[in-house]
Amino acid sequence: MKYYLLGIIVDFFDSMGYHLGNRIVFYLSRMISAQKLTEFYHSDYDNLKKVRSIWICMDGDDEAFIEEISLDNKRILGDKPMLVGADLMKAVIVHIRGQVGKSDSKNPLIFMLEILFSELSVQEKKHILSEECGFIMTVELEGRIQDMCNISEVIIERCMERGMKQGMERGIEQERINAIGRMMKAGATNVQMLSYGYTENELAKAESKLCSYA
To answer: What residues contact 155, with CB distance under 8 A and at least 6 apart?
Structure first.
């Protein structure tokens, strides 16, 4: 199994604008097609190598779970089995919670990942992994844990930056709607407000807000 991909998604699915499964299938397909002229030539498709993809998703929800995406063979008619590489493409998505401490996960993989990507200090993480997961802290393992901690710090920083940006954007949007509401109360027409750069969607939101207060 030569091809391997690890993805880390730091976002809520609702804000992606697409389904994560479609993105994963796209990457798996690219890893398959990239093998032409490297792993096999001409029509030697039986020489395709299996590809695997692992995605760690920090949803921030209370639920943690693991799901798998893979090919599936289904014979519609006849009994003869069809020898197709159904296991050529496979992906595993590991959803971990954004916070630890609510309750320890009973799944050892999720528990370990939630500790690694938490805001705990490096020493606290090492202690928990040693005591709770049975890790033997060799020099090599400590170095790898340090690398993972560095990644988690970047992830936390990115999440904070995204949260601040989204908060500012929501504040600006709300102020624009409030301004439209004030102009509506002053008797401004829709044509006038649109000429100021406001959108029809913003006008509709402002009108709906005024009606709810009426």
So the answer is: 8, 10, 58, 117
Helix (H, G, I), strand (E, B) or coil at 167: helix
What are the tokens at 50?
């299996």
**Spatial contact of 84 and 73, defined as CB atoms under 8 Å apart:** yes
* E-strand stretches of the chain: 3-9, 51-58, 65-70, 89-96
d(CA 127, CA 132): 8
Helix (H) / strand (E) element for 165: namely helix 139-185
- Judge whether 114 and 77 are in contact, CB under 8 Å: no
* Residue whose entry in the numeric block shows the structure tokens 């100021």: 196
Q: What digits encode the pLDDT tens for the residues 12-30?
A: 444 567 788 888 899 899 8
Close Cβ partners of 29 (under 8 Å, ≥ 6 residues apart): 89
